[in-house]
Amino acid sequence: MEKLSRKKEVGGLGLRKLGAINLAMLAKQVWRIIMKPDALLSRILKHKYFSSTDVFQAVAGSGCSFTWRSIISARNMVSAGFRWQVGNGHSVKIRTDKWVPRPWTFKVLTAQNTLGWDATVSELLSEEGEWNEEFMQTVFRPEDIGAINGISPCRGTPDKLRWHFEKHGRYEVKSTYHLFCTGTVPNSLSSFTGSSSRKPEGWSFIWSDDVSPRVRLFAWRACRDSLPTSSNLARRGVTQEGVCPWCGTEGEDLFHTLFLSISPVSSGLFPTSRGAPSTAHTLIWRRGSMVCIRVLEGHTLFASCLSTGCCGERVIGCYSRILPHRRGFCWSVLGA
User: What pTM does this model have?
Assistant: First the structure.
């Protein structure tokens, strides 16, 4: 499921995780409770479940409703992405509140004991409404000072909460879902889990061409080496032997099925002896080969080497657009 739920440009099918979507939508209710405390729902829930604290400190008692239990199950998602937008600084506590625009804590790293726990950000401002650099150098680390200087305070406006990962500052289900699934949010500079955002070369090549969705899915399965070749079936315990049913060769992997076997699949794609691509077709499948194009009966065959695979010289990507009857026969043979 992990591969299927990735975005298409990074090698998945773009299927959404229903559990994550549900949590992101529940988290929106938490956001509404925070931003609209005078709303009827907010007042009812506060009176019944957290009258003396806030929604983040509330607990799910033994007699609480299913609705409330569901809402507080998603509050950590809101806690991971909201912070204060500093205005006059009177409502924001320096040491405990989240106000520094730096994921993921949004708090100052250290503060000297000269600042009390109840000290507010307004104490860091000069009479002109600018940051008091001289005072901040005595209480903060240089990395904190650099992050704070990126904030533009405004003494004439009150402090307000905002969602860090949207330019407009409002909570969005989309960015929260991305945060939950990958640990990163678009346009953010930090990574929650350290996962790489590098896009494998060639995935957009599969999905951008104007062909049948069935062919695109076949290409994706070939790129993921998830076609039911004999080797894959043997590895998963479906069959006992990974022998090619056409030529009897041991170890029928993706490369063998598509390019080396005498099966109608490879011979249909490459009508040469034993179906193997020759130098005449300018198809040399080695590490570093990128895109090869040739004309096949008025149609175009695309092939792309997307990764080196376990052997370093195996084609992981194959993308074809062939005659309908030939494509249908290939699908029936592969059992895809």
Answer: 0.61
What single-letter DSSP state applies at residue 248?
-
* Interacting residues of 39 by C-beta distance below 8 A, sequence separation 6+: 32, 33
**195 within domain boundaries:** no
pLDDT 10s digits, 56-88: 989 888 888 999 999 999 998 888 889 999 999
Task: Say if residue 290 is in the same domain as residue 216.
Answer: yes
Distance CA 212, CA 215 (A): 5
Which two three-digit tokens encode residue 300? Answer: 């175009």
Final residue belonging to a domain, choices 24, 46, 79: 79
Selection from 120, 119, 94, 333 nearest residue 230 by Cα: 333
Contacts of 185 (CB under 8 A, 6+ apart): 81, 165, 175, 178, 179
- Measure the CA–CA gap between 206 and 216, rounded to whole angstroms: 6
Residue with the two structure tokens 């074809």? 320
